[in-house]
Design brief:
- This protein is of the alpha/beta class.
- The chain is built from 9 helices and 7 strands.
- The chain has a 7-stranded mixed β-sheet with strand order 2-3-1-4-5-7-6, with helices on both faces.
- A hairpin with a 2-residue loop joins strand 2 and strand 3.
- Helix 7 packs antiparallel against helix 8.
- The structure holds guanosine-5'-triphosphate and magnesium ion.
- Guanosine-5'-triphosphate binds next to helix 1 and helix 5.
Length: about 220
């Protein structure tokens, strides 16, 4: 009899969405839950029917007051998603989540760019040593600001913010190569940087993947 293959163990990660107030955390959470099939209807904050803004006061004011948790599954990974409030009055509620996060998703509104509160969050994420992915939304309102926004991230957050929309291109590998010696060595030898090294860079906070929303409302 052939050897039985062990069942693929599902990995579990805890990810928090953080941003300044009104950036679009709850809207993005809603989209992630909908895309993963966790919810069947795409609710909206401005209609008061978002899946995660459950409290009456949240629905009425159109803002998040309490952090909420939702579960989704994607490619053999179970993800606990924590949607946090962006309003400074509820910062303690946001900060509580930092103790349990494996990864953070920092949302930046394409119309506002890096705000004072974004920098405060960035410092907190560094203090808690949390790897960060950056998502820039509201690109439907931001016009052709993609390059300027990437410059802003590099200048105001970290020089190792890299646009993953360019993944696989020469300029992507050049930017990735300078993030560590191992990456540079691999790039000089092969002309590319492999996923294994990229993963290491992300986990050790030497590289911050950035994703810009496509321009649709
Ligand atoms: N045009 C446009 N509007 C967006 C986008 N994402 C979010 N919004 C709108 O921005 C407003 C704020 O969105 P929320 O998702 O409530 O933002 P939030 O970051 O969760 O806000 P707080 O939790 O109160 O900090 C809502 O009216 C959304 O419909 C986007 O990509 N484009
Ligand atoms: Mg919200």
């Amino acid at each position: 009899m052939g050897e039985q293959k062990p069942e693929k163990v599902k990995k579990h990660i805890c990810t928090g969405l953080l941003a300044h107030v009104d950036a679009g955390k709850t809207t993005l959470s809603e989209a992630l839950l909908y895309t993963s099939g966790r919810i069947r209807r795409l609710g909206r904050v401005d209609r008061g029917d978002a899946y995660l803004d459950t409290y009456e006061l949240e629905k009425k004011r159109g803002i998040t007051i309490f952090s909420k948790q939702a579960e989704l599954a994607w490619n053999h990974i179970n993800v606990s998603l924590l949607d946090t409030p962006g309003h400074v009055d509820f910062s303690a509620e946001m900060e509580r989540t930092l103790q349990v996060l494996d990864y953070a998703l920092l949302v930046i509104s394409g119309t506002d760019g890096v705000q004072g509160h974004t920098r405060t969050l960035w410092r907190l994420l560094a203090r808690y040593e949390i790897p960060v992915f950056i998502f820039i939304n509201k690109m439907d309102l931001a016009g052709e600001r993609k390059d300027a926004l990437m410059e802003e991230l590099k200048n105001h957050l970290d020089g190792s913010c890299v646009d993953f929309g360019n993944a696989g291109t020469e300029s992507f590998f050049e930017e990735t190569a300078v993030c560590s010696e191992a990456a540079l060595e691999e790039y000089l030898e092969t002309g590319a940087v492999g996923n294994g090294v990229i993963r290491e860079l992300i986990v050790s906070r030497k590289l911050f993947p950035c994703f810009l929303a496509r321009r649709c409302a």
